[in-house]
Amino acid sequence: MRRLKPDRLPRHLAIIMDGNGRWAKQRMLQRIVGHQKGVETVRMIVEECSKVGIAYLTLFAFSSENWLRPKTEVQALMALLKKYIRSEVPRMMQNNVRFAVIGNRHELPQGVNKEIDEAIATTSGNSGMQLTLALSYGSRREILGAVSRIAADATAGKIDPSNLDEKLFAGYLYTDGIPDPDLLIRTSGEMRISNFLLWQLAYTELYFTDVNWPDFDSLQLYKALKDYQDRERRFGLTSEQLRSGK
Ligand code: IPE
Ligand code: IPE
Ligand code: MG
């Protein structure tokens, strides 16, 4: 990571970790073995990102649509998740990482929620990178939930609908307090968003790689960050405007 420019790092990196199943299939292994291997990648990437100086890392680990997968896979994923969160807390403490979750937590098994609560409480005082797992997360539902709470607050007279702006709206999303992602990485060659952070990704730089998540390593991370650093984010302006600062 030596050649990265520290002043041009994404403040918030989001990753759609995809391709565990295909990684396993290519090796004639069960899908769950791919998920297990994927957890090892998560460990390494979390550590690497916190060392490099990423402030927010958000990992899409389980979507609201993933509940429709075969029951055995869902159960195995939940068991893996519980084990991962529990075993990672000491490492989060070592790396000064703060743990958070976005998504519909009510749908998660009690055992998983218990580990989440403990991990959040234990790491809440850490001032380093914030690691956010998106669990049972679906962006359209997140947006609908926000709209419905805004409507309720307006009816109750808590907010004035004519004051509704992007900032107020964003405050009703799960990601309240987290800046929008600067860079989104998706592994495994799929070029879609799959209902992830639809509102928040409005001006995010997108990076797709064919590498399956279990094979994603620090060199791949470096390549993505380097690619990001060589881009010009214009936010609708012209290149000349950006260069002259006007
Ligand atoms: C990503 O890998 C992990 C989850 C969605 C839980 P997949 O399980 O989607 O792997 P592929 O896409 O089938 O290869
Ligand atoms: C997106 O991957 C969700 C996660 C990585 C957790 P999927 O594998 O579920 O997405 P699709 O079905 O290929 O769009
Ligand atoms: Mg997939």
Q: What this model shows, in words?
A:
The two termini are 33 Å apart. Helix content is 43%, strand content 14%. The protein has eight helices and six strands. It has 246 residues and is of the alpha/beta class. The protein has helices at 20-26, 31-52, 71-94, 110-123, 139-155, 166-170, 218-229, 239-244; strands at residues 12-16, 56-63, 98-102, 130-137, 183-186, 205-208. Strands 3-4-2-1-5-6 form a six-stranded parallel β-sheet, sandwiched between helices. The longest helix is centred in the middle third of the chain and has 24 residues, at 71-94. It binds 3-methylbut-3-enyl trihydrogen diphosphate (IPE) (2 copies) and magnesium ion (MG). The site of one 3-methylbut-3-enyl trihydrogen diphosphate has 10 residues, from α1.
